[in-house]
Amino acid sequence: MPKSKCESCGKRYGADETMAWINRTGSRDCPNCGSDDSLRVDYSEDEGCYIATAVYGSYDSSEVWILRKYRDNTLLKTFYGRIFVKFYYFISPTLVKLFGEKKWFKEVFKSKLDVFIDKLEKQI
Q: N or C: which end of the chain has fewer CB within 10 A?
């Protein structure tokens, strides 16, 4: 799961912990050192589901769970599905690192993912 890190003091926080802090206080100020607007999500850990996690705010959100289930139960069972997953894991960390906190990025991908997830839910 992506972690958050203070750019000033270097303290790491879990993504859920960071989102709770931001929602509670309305700021990205570090709870440890108090530096202004210093919390940033670190997507460098190799866990997957980068774009969906950036869009939905948590690796454990219901939407990300549905996408992981689709990856595991459908995509990884076919040759072309495995190629797609490898390509996704190659390109998505860079995309999220560059654009993951941008509003336009989240809006574009959320609209597409919501439609896809809705289709997956209807198949269940």
A: C
